Amino acid sequence: MEMDFVVDKEAKTVSITKEFAFGLDLVWDAYTKPELLDQWWAPKPWMSRTKVLDFKVGGRRFYAMVSPEGDERWAVQKYTSITPKTNFKFYNTFADADENPELPGSDWDFNFSEQDGTTKVSISIYNESLERLERMIEFGFREGTMAQLQNLDELLATLKREPNT
Amino acid sequence: MRRDVFQAIADPTRRAIIALIAVQAMTPNALAAHFDTTRQAVSKHLRVLTECEMVKQDQQGREIYYRLEIEKMKEIDKWLEQYREIWEARYGQLDELLSTIKKEKKEK
Question: The complex's ipTM?
Fold first, then answer.
C-alpha cells in the first residue's frame, strides 16, 4: 500500500505515513520486537543488528546497520513515551560501538491506528537543525542500496562536470 | 578537494549567508556586518560557497557582489529524494515480512 513522504524544511520535520493491509497487533510487533525489526529496518543489502532492545520508557534500542562488507554504523533509540498499540516516541542518536552518543539527535514520534483491518502508521521525525537533518539523510543514504549509491555518483558527476568559477 | 552543495549548507554561518544573499546580492563588507565573526571568516565562507558553486561574483565598480545560484539549492531536494527511497525500500521489506508471518500463522 502507498506511502506518503513529506519534508517540511521550515518545521525541520520529515513525515512518513504508511498503510498496511494487516492488523494492528502484528504491525505494532514489527516496530517494537528486535527479531522482527532486524528483518526489515535496514534496506538490503544492509543488515540491521539489534544488540539491546528494552521496550519501556527509559529503555532503549541499541543497534547497528551493517554493510555487506561488515562496516557497522551504530545508533541508540531511547524510548521517551509508550502508549501500547497507539503511540511511542524515541530520541535517536548516532553512536559509536561503545554506545557513546553523537549529539544532537532527532525526536521520532510513531502513531498507530487500525480501521477495517488496515493499520496506518504515521512517523514524524524532528531535527533540531537543518545540518542534523542532512546528517540523518546522509546516514540513511549510507544504509541504501547500490542503486541509490549510483544516483549520488551521477549527481556528483553532474556537479563536477559544470565549469568552475 | 571535491565540494558540493551539502558542504555549503553544513555550516550555520554559511546557511545564514545563503539566506541573506537569497534576498539580494551583497558585498563581503555588508555581509560581515550581520555576523559577530571577522571579515576574514566571512570571506572564508564565501570562498567555500564559491567552490561549491552556490554563489557567483559580480563586479560593480570597486565592489564585488555575491549572489545566490538558486539552481544549486534544488540539488538538496534531490538529496531528500534519496531518503524517501530508503523508506520505500524499508517499507517494501516490511510488507513482505508481514505477509510471510501471516501466512505462517494460518498454516499452523
Answer: 0.77
